[in-house]
Design brief:
Bound molecules: beta-D-glucopyranose
Number of helices: 19
Shape: globular
Structural class: alpha+beta
Largest sheet: 6 strands, mixed
């Protein structure tokens, strides 16, 4: 049936009900027209589903920056297909991803969640992601439209940016994914040039819907709709979450009083129904392009663990290597760092998912045959303790006493935000208790902590060890969840004995929605900080090779706040220098989602960047260090030596605004203009073989490059095509090639029309002569040719 016929069958209150969430993650069903509940989920490294807990596990892929570091659209498309499979498994119709804001500044708190500093690379990777997911019958919502490139005061900040910059840089990736056919899109929290994005008619109705012809659904970021008329008229179609909020009855009144035309409501409803039709949530119409219902059988299931491992290795970026890698003749390997034992596999915030296993570097490298791995923590940079890892049961207790439900968890982390487990009646809920059965491996003073806001009672074997109320810090309501305060205490425990720990916390609500979020943290008894470093140095000195895993921490990289420094937290720089002094074969593995300063980079044998590598981190690391796989990554962002060198660092609003005064000059274009040299250029990354670039030819915008693998093993190279005119140089195309030793390959790259266009109150193609460079990275051209357009 035509969508308009369905809309005609709905009365105004029903139509309006469809435009606000029925809860945290879904729109209400309308059985009379065959519309199912439409379920949404974050995104982007996995599909979390409707619960924020380990009770509902998901495959965790590497972070989006790692995905972009592969420069491989086919691989990204396969990752998208896996995400669609995961979404269908969990009954999710809409994946709230990908994040296609730009790496404007290395300080951006969600840098790890965005692809790149370059609009073209972001657009290509974003389009492949969108196509991969949607080919599996699941919608995407590229986000956050637009200029949400930092976190400070994100709900209110006004980004001041001129039209040319907006068009040529920040809107570009959005235009690309819309033209690739995205079925949804998410508006941002921030304002652009004085108008908050959920009300920005010029950009949402004007540019997105009218000019680009977007026929999909515009969903708000969570709680971003703050007005009735302005947001309804401004182009946002659905206000999430709900059922409370500024639409509902107020929007109905606005329509009845003629302040919002009913046709505007109908257009929004049409977009919801169109998306429902596309994802199989609307009564089996013949128009549905994707066969099978959302919860139907999955054709040819993709092996999620194998793909997570493959993508991780392909994104690993080798920055320096004096020949120590791949490892040869290694019998003893010192593996150093707290992140070696507990890998940081993802960044914090709404991107969090809960894999049902994580392969740490320690586990991954220990599986290498013939290598004895010796682990030393060296130093632990985390500010908060890690969740106690042991069998845990979450008990939902009724207000008047009695047990409502129990759910097993893999770690002592309580997270029910906006949605309680289906078998828990929120009206009757009084408290949530975590009960952990823990058997320590070490005797002594164990450090415990509670991180969260509100009242907590902690018992060990029935005895109360903490009874306290933790007050929130700062004014950001999301901080209680994303960056909660922590209270620590110590308990003597004996190795091998079993302890019953419990934390009881009154159930909370925030804006009328369930809000249960706290962690029982734990750390084993440990020697002093100096002794830990000394021990690591001893182990390194005694081993054939040392691998130090250095990482950022959840307090450093997360949604909700920006970074203040690029320094590795804690004493990690000191640890690396001490280990490198003790063993010349020291490899540093940088486990961070975005740039960190590496003052020791010249003092170590190799630096390998693993980003946030996803759940199969350790297996992929073993593959790459041993040479079973080549590190496939190339930097999708320029890596500064120090924060002081970085060209754009301004992320703090002044009088409520951040001005993008640098215009289009972000990333490598800013570095090139400033004349400064970064630690590593955009596009840099080493493999395990060498290449000669043999010849280049071009006909119009079609470029052909021949190159030969001059090394002695199979390898992969990312051929990058830059377009130069005057002093300006921009990425305009790329391709991944593979070849065996001695083999020559030819690649043909098609440069898009947009590469030759500039914005001057409309797109204008700039005719004339251009130099095309075939490069290993932006500042390393190997061949060039002049073309006339
Ligand atoms: C984030 C979005 C996310 C949403 C739902 C917001 O705070 O900015 O990216 O999709 O929450 O979790």
């Amino acid at each position: 049936m035509e969508l308009d016929e369905l809309i005609a069958r709905l009365d105004l209150p029903t139509k309006i009900r469809l435009l606000t969430g029925a809860g945290m993650w879904s729109l209400p069903p309308i059985p009379e027209i065959g519309l199912d509940r439409l379920v949404m989920s974050d995104g982007p490294i996995g599909v979390r589903g409707e619960q924020w807990t380990s009770a509902d596990p998901s495959i965790a892929l590497p972070s989006p920056t790692a995905l972009a570091a592969t420069w491989d659209v086919e691989l990204v498309r396969r990752a998208g297909a896996l995400l669609a499979q995961e979404a269908r498994r969990k009954g999710v119709h809409v994946l709230l991803a990908p994040t296609i804001n730009l790496h404007r500044s290395p300080l951006g708190g969600r840098h790890f969640e965005c692809f790149s500093e370059d609009p073209y690379l972001t657009g290509e990777i974003g389009a492949a992601y969108v196509e991969g997911v949607q080919e599996g019958g699941v919608a995407t919502t590229p986000k956050h439209f637009v200029a949400n490139d930092f976190e400070t005061d994100r709900f209110t900040v006004d980004v001041r940016v001129d039209e040319k910059t907006l068009r040529e840089v920040y809107l570009r990736p959005f235009e690309r994914v819309v033209r690739a056919g995205a079925w949804g899109l998410m508006t941002a929290y921030n304002a652009v040039n004085g108008t908050t994005m959920t009300e920005h008619s010029a950009l949402v109705n004007g540019v997105l819907k009218d000019e680009w012809g977007f026929d999909g659904l515009v969903v708000s970021d969570w709680t971003a709709v703050r007005s009735t008329e302005a947001a309804a008229l401004g182009g946002t179609d659905v206000a999430m979450p709900g059922p409370f909020g500024p639409w509902g009855d107020k929007l109905e009144a606005a329509v009845r009083e003629g302040r919002v035309p009913e046709s505007v409501v109908d257009d929004k409803v049409r977009r919801v129904l169109r998306l429902a039709q596309r994802t199989g949530a609307l009564g089996g119409g013949e128009d549905r392009p994707v066969p099978g219902p959302i919860d139907g059988p999955i054709d040819g299931p993709i092996d999620g663990l194998a793909l997570a491992r493959e993508v991780a290795a392909r994104g690993f970026t080798l920055l320096t290597n004096d020949g120590v890698l791949p490892l040869r003749d290694v019998r003893t390997l010192a593996l150093i760092g707290s992140a070696a034992g507990e890998a940081r596999v993802m960044g914090g915030g709404s991107a969090q998912v809960f894999p049902d296993r994580i392969v740490s570097p320690l586990a991954g490298l220990s599986a290498l045959e013939g290598v004895e791995v010796r682990h030393a923590v060296g130093t632990d940079p985390r500010i908060r303790l890690a969740p106690l890892a042991c069998p845990v049961v979450a008990q939902f207790l009724a207000a008047g006493g009695g047990l409502l439900a129990e759910h097993p968890l893999a770690a002592a982390e309580a997270r029910w935000v906006g949605q309680l487990p289906p078998d828990v009646d929120g009206e009757r809920l009084g408290a949530v208790r975590l009960r952990a059965a823990y058997t320590p491996g070490t005797s002594g003073r164990h450090e415990l902590s509670v991180a969260g806001v509100g009242a907590f009672t902690v018992t060990v074997n029935g005895e109360t060890v903490l009874d306290a109320t933790i007050e929130p810090e700062g004014g950001d309501p999301a901080a209680a969840f994303l960056s909660p305060p922590e209270r620590r205490f110590a308990v003597e425990m004996a190795a091998g004995e079993s302890y019953e720990l419990s934390v009881t916390h009154p159930a909370g609500a925030f804006g009328g929605m369930a809000f249960v979020a706290y962690t029982l943290g734990h750390a084993d008894p440990a020697p002093g900080a100096d002794e830990l470093i000394a021990e690591a140095v001893r182990v390194a000195a005694d081993s054939d090779v040392a691998v130090v895993v250095a990482s950022t921490t959840p307090e450093v990289e997360s949604e909700g706040f920006d970074r203040e420094t690029l320094a590795l937290p804690g004493r990690q720089d000191e640890l690396i220098r001490a280990v490198a002094a003790a063993n010349p074969r020291t490899v540093v593995v940088v486990n961070a989602g975005s740039p960190v300063e590496m003052p020791w980079a010249d003092e170590v044998a190799a630096v390998l960047l693993t980003w946030f590598p996803g759940q199969e981190a350790g297996s992929a690391l073993a593959d790459v260090l041993s040479g079973r796989a080549e590190p496939g990554g190339r930097l999708p962002t320029t890596w500064p030596a120090t924060l002081a060198d970085a060209p754009v660092t301004d992320v703090t609003p002044v009088d409520g605004a951040v001005a993008y005064d640098e215009g289009a000059f972000i990333g490598y274009r800013a570095w090139e203009r400033s004349g400064r040299v970064p630690a590593f250029w955009f596009g840099h990354g080493l493999g395990y073989t060498t290449w000669s670039y043999d010849s280049i030819a071009a006909e119009g915008a079609t470029v052909t490059v021949a190159l030969t693998n001059t090394g002695d093993r199979f390898g992969r190279e990312v051929v990058q095509i830059y377009l130069c005119r005057g002093a300006d140089r921009r990425l305009a195309g790329f391709d991944v090639v593979e070849a065996g030793p001695g083999e020559t390959v030819i690649t043909t790259v098609f440069l898009p029309d947009s590469a030759f266009q500039v914005w001057e109150d409309g797109w204008r193609t700039v005719e004339g002569e251009y130099t095309l460079q075939a490069s290993h990275h932006v500042a390393d051209p190997r061949l060039s040719i002049t073309v006339k357009i």
